[in-house]
Backbone:
């Protein structure tokens, strides 16, 4: 997603010198070859030196270390943002690492994705029409906030401001839990001795689950742990719903099942939710 | 799916006179207008009189009543089949309703679908490359079995024969459980006071769930109840997996979570499962 943001900013003349850093140095050199990046830095500290804007585009679990590595190299006017799928943990890490610089950190989460990983698949129009949630803290400077929001708007995104805790609670529900369910279901079947025979008879519904479960294990491990309290609550509520389903099945309660299924089925017909994203 | 089979058979000159019956008489008349059907019958019994082949294309819960209505009208050489997503219950119903005619009933389940309902969306190529599971009983006559299998092959499908119980056990796992999970998750969120706010921030993963949950509530109520024993087993196993996830989250067990997610993620990369279906 960092690559797509680089492509979007460059395509819209919003960035005139983009320096990349990746733990995989080859990925960054490839970005230079592709014209997405102007240079590949040897370290995070080198990448951020003299930068007007720093974008953290890593799995959320890597953010604390990364911030520690760049904290001393960041200029006094540098604005920072991130693309992480959880916000309270990222804000806590930024507050801890950046000291007074925390007022120039603007936490963000573009609800986009589903794109293939790797700079080769960077899509300059990925953010067109998508929602970017911005979760400012009390200390966030308004000018930093407005600059980041303007940047996203220039990429075609719609901004939604909310508290980090609300973001994390909502995303636990509509993103993190669905991913965990997909991973758990596919893993459960994959672990059975007759997995191949079963997978060969899987239909469209199951293919959707395997597509969701094809997401990065490391990224989702980090998200699940970073948002473990809210996710744990959603998970427990869902297990309770499944236990109700089990009882209805055992009792042959056709009406209860139909009502549950009907409520879900209606939601598709009335929802105008986002078209894509994590 | 009945409409798509009619379209497929007609397009391949495998049927020269197709009579339809639907509880919604208008649907059948529309089929005649569209050229999918040659005639619309006033009753199930009228539809099957003098038929060489009878195809039951209803939610599985409607099969016992339907069989009772046609049993006396079926000719002594008529072959019957169905398209139901569960097989043991359909076979039991056919055995009960058809008496000696049961030997000409060939239970089948095309693993196709995802198509929009209604005869307007009938797709003559829906079955190209799809798998049709055929679950013969000990009493099934070989000539009836071979005739049905040849019919499906003429529509481009691949045949897989197995026991009804094995079919139901596998489908509980790779189809019925995923659908129940999707219905339950979407219903759980839809039932919350801030559902609209949450749905507006839903990403691609959740959209997959709502698409699955947009399936027919009546059809899936019937499937869930018809296959309640196998589905209940899968559901309990899945709840146990979710409880393990909950524990790993609470314990902050990053390694366990990553291993689970990695197993699921690999499955997508190695699976060559069916492209579509229920």
Residues:
């Amino acid at each position: 997603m960092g690559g797509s943001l680089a492509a979007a900013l460059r395509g819209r003349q919003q960035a005139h010198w983009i320096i990349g850093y990746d733990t995989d140095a080859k990925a960054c050199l490839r970005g230079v070859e592709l014209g997405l990046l102007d240079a590949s830095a040897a370290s995070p500290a080198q990448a951020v030196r003299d930068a007007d804007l720093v974008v953290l585009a890593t799995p959320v679990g890597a953010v604390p270390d990364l911030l520690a590595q760049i904290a001393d190299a960041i200029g006094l006017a540098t604005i920072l943002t991130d693309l992480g799928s959880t916000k309270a943990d990222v804000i806590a890490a930024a507050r801890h690492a950046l000291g007074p610089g925390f007022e120039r950190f603007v936490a963000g989460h573009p609800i986009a994705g589903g794109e293939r990983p790797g700079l080769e698949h960077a899509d300059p129009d990925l953010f067109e029409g998508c929602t970017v949630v911005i979760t400012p803290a009390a200390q966030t400077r308004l000018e930093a906030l407005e600059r980041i929001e303007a940047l996203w708007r220039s990429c075609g995104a719609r901004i939604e401001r909310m508290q980090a805790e609300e973001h994390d609670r909502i995303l636990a529900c509509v993103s993190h839990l669905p991913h965990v369910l997909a991973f758990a279901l596919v893993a459960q079947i994959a672990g059975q001795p007759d997995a191949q025979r079963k997978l060969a008879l899987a239909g469209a519904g199951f293919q959707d689950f395997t597509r969701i479960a094809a997401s990065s294990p490391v990224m989702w491990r980090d998200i699940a742990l970073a948002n473990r309290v809210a996710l744990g609550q959603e998970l427990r509520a869902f297990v309770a719903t499944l236990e109700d389903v089990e009882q209805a099945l055992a009792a042959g309660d056709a009406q209860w099942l139909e009502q549950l299924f009907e409520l879900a089925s209606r939601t598709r017909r009335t929802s105008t939710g986002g078209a894509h994203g994590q």
User: Anything to note?
Assistant: Residues 86 and 223 of chain A are 6 Å apart (CA to CA). Chain A is about 55% helix and 10% strand. Confidence is low (pLDDT under 50) at residues 271-278 of chain A. The two ends of chain A are 11 Å apart (CA to CA).
